[in-house]
Write a structure and sequence with these properties.
Helix content is about 35%, strand content about 20%. It contains seven helices and seven strands. It binds S-adenosylmethionine. S-adenosylmethionine binds next to helix 3, strand 2 and helix 5.
Length: about 190
């Protein structure tokens, strides 16, 4: 079997990938993460999806390519620079709303059980404020994080945060959690 996830990437992803390299944005989601997100998004027809940490929009492009016409995506970042790439390439798609805001404050303002899939790709909603993010998941909703496998550029002490997050998700009574050695290391949890 040939594992080539870039072959399945939408054209918008390729354009964003090129712009991401030109910009020098150094926190992009991997193609393998995008491929799984695309598949999971397709499993939530008519759903509401949330991405914390738009970056330049690589994962958003993948989510959109999996979503049906009735599914919506909110993608949030507090840095207008990289998010401008996502807006430039994807904003013509009426299913997506880009929000420029700090995720800490924004998460606290959202009604409970308002999303069917959350890709938590920023510190808030992942290493900080995990319960705030999980509060937003509907029953059957999926919570997804990447970058769980050790990376050489991790700052001192980051491994302990990763281990703590994995323990909290795996031990959570309301979640069915799977860890995957795939792409940068994924955890997918479903709310019971
Ligand atoms: C790993 S990158 C996201 C990559 C992106 N999901 C992709 O598909 O390539 C993390 C992003 O989180 C954003 N971020 C960091 N702190 C934040 C905060 N407090 N609120 C909102 N976004 C934040 C950063 O600006 C950065 O763009």
């Amino acid at each position: 079997m040939v594992f080539d996830n870039t072959a399945a990437m939408p054209s918008a992803w390729r354009e964003i990938d090129a712009r991401t390299r030109a910009l020098g944005f150094d926190m992009p989601s991997e193609a393998g993460t995008g491929a799984i997100l695309r598949t999971l998004a397709a499993g939530k027809p008519g759903g509401g999806l949330l991405e914390l940490g738009t970056g330049t929009g690589l994962a958003a492009a993948c989510l959109l390519s999996g979503m049906d016409a009735a599914t919506t995506l909110v993608s949030l970042d507090n840095d207008a620079g990289p998010q401008a790439v996502a807006r430039a390439v994807l904003d013509g798609d009426a299913r997506v709303t880009f929000v420029l805001a700090d995720a800490h404050a924004w998460l606290g303002e959202q009604p409970a059980a308002s999303f069917d899939l959350i890709f938590a790709d920023a510190m808030p909603g992942k290493y900080e404020g995990l319960d705030q993010a999980l509060r937003l998941l509907r029953p059957g909703g999926l919570y997804v994080v990447d970058d769980m496998s050790p990376q050489p550029n991790w700052p001192e002490g980051h491994q302990a945060r990763v281990d703590d997050l994995a323990d909290r998700l795996q031990g959570h009574p309301d979640l069915a959690t799977t860890t995957l050695q795939w792409a940068s290391g994924l955890i997918i949890a479903a709310r019971r």
